[in-house]
Amino acid sequence: MIFKIKVFLILVSLFIITNVSAQNKIALVKKDGKFGYIDEAGKYIVEPIYEEAYSFSEGLAPVMRDDKWGFIDKTGKEVIPLQYDYANWFWDGLAAVKQGEKWGYIDKTGQLVISFKYDYTFAFSEGMSSVELNGKSGYIDTKGKEVIPLKYAKALDYYKGLAPVEDESGNLFFIDKKGKTVDKPYLTHLILKRQDYIYFYRDDKIGIKNKCGKVLTAPKYDALSSVYKNKAFYKIGDDKYGLVHKCGKTLTGPRYEEVNNFSEGLAAVKMNDKWGYVHHKKGLVVANRFDAVGSFREGLAPAQLDGKWGYIDKTGKLVIACKFEEHEDSMFVKVK
C-alpha cells in the first residue's frame, strides 16, 4: 500500500501469518465457490469444501461450513468442532470466537478460557488484546484479566510495547502496557506505519525523517511507499511511480503505473497495464505479463491470467497453474 496525501492515518491490526519453526507450506484457495488448501506443489491437502476459511496461524486454521465455524489442522482434521458463529486466528495460543452476540477466547484444545462477554475483540498482540463492551474499549491479558480499564472510544493492538487509543473527543494518543500515556510525536508515525522512518507533511507534500526526527528527504512527493533496503517508490503529481533513496536521490525515473511494497526482496510493478516484479537491486526480474499479482510469501506469489489465479516463483515461472477463482489471503504460510 502506498501512502498518499489523502490517506494520512489508517488504523489497522496487521495479521502476519508466519511460523519460523515450521516445515510445511500451505495456501488457501477457492475453487467452484468453496475454499480448500494446497501445498507448494499445488496438490490439495484439504479439498475445497468450506464456505469460508482463513489461512493457518499457529498450526490451525478457522473454517466455516453450514454457517458454523471451527478449526482444522494441517491434515484437514477438524480438531475444534464447527460450533461457533464466528472464529478468528490463533495468536499467543488463544483465538477469539463468537457465540450469539458475544465474543470470548478458546485455547487450542477448544476449551473456553475467557468467557463470552465482550461485544468485540481483537487478536492478542504482545500478550494483550483489545476488547469492547458497552461502547468502551480497554485491554485484557491472556488470563482474561482486564489490565487496562475499558474507558476508551477505540483501542488497537500493541506494537513494540505501545498501543494507539482514542478518547471520546476523537483524540489519538499512545499508551504503554501499564496504561500510561507516552508523549513522543514521532512514535505515532512509527507505530501506525510499522517501520523505522517517519513520513512528514509540509504544503501537501511528503518527506522522510529518521526515528530521531532528522530530515532525510525533503517534502516534495505526493506519494511514498514504505522504505525497504533504504529505497522507496515515489510519485510526483500525476506522473508515474519511480524509485528513490531514503535520502532523496532519484534511482529510477517515473515509469510504473502502479506499484506495491517490497516483499522478500521483490515488489510488484505495473507497466503497459500488466504486472511484473522488480528486485530492490537488480531491477526488473519478472516480466510484466500478469493481469494481477500479490506479494511474495515463502518464495511464491499469487498471479492472475485470464481471470484465474495460480502461483509463480521469483523467476516468474508458473509453478501452480492458474485455475483458482480467488487468491484471497492465500499466500503460502509455514505450519507446524
Q: CATH topology of the largest domain, what is it called?
A: Methylamine Dehydrogenase, Chain H
- Segments where pLDDT lies below 50 for 5+ residues? 1-23
Number of helices: 1
| Structural domain count | 2
Instruction: Please state the second-level CATH architecture of the largest domain.
Output: 7 Propeller
**Mean pLDDT, nearest integer?**
86
CATH first level of the largest domain: Mainly Beta
Describe this structure in words.
With 336 residues, the chain is mainly β. The protein has 2 domains: 55-190, Methylamine Dehydrogenase, Chain H (7 Propeller); 204-330, Beta Barrel (Lipocalin). Helix content is 3%, strand content 54%. The protein contains 1 helix and 36 strands. The chain has one helix at 185-193, and strands spanning 3-4, 24-31, 34-39, 44-50, 52-53, 61-65, 68-72, 78-84, 86-91, 94-99, 102-106, 112-118, 120-121, 128-133, 136-141, 146-152, 154-155, 163-166, 172-175, 181-182, 197-202, 205-210, 215-221, 223-224, 231-235, 241-245, 250-256, 258-259, 266-271, 274-279, 283-290, 292-293, 301-305, 308-312, 318-324, 333-335. It has a 5-stranded antiparallel β-sheet, with no helix packed on it.
SSE layout and pairings?
Elements: E1 3-4, E2 24-31, E3 34-39, E4 44-50, E5 52-53, E6 61-65, E7 68-72, E8 78-84, E9 86-91, E10 94-99, E11 102-106, E12 112-118, E13 120-121, E14 128-133, E15 136-141, E16 146-152, E17 154-155, E18 163-166, E19 172-175, E20 181-182, H1 185-193, E21 197-202, E22 205-210, E23 215-221, E24 223-224, E25 231-235, E26 241-245, E27 250-256, E28 258-259, E29 266-271, E30 274-279, E31 283-290, E32 292-293, E33 301-305, E34 308-312, E35 318-324, E36 333-335
Antiparallel strand pairs: 1-24, 2-3, 2-36, 3-4, 5-6, 6-7, 7-8, 9-10, 10-11, 11-12, 13-14, 14-15, 15-16, 17-18, 18-19, 19-20, 21-22, 22-23, 24-25, 25-26, 26-27, 28-29, 29-30, 30-31, 32-33, 33-34, 34-35
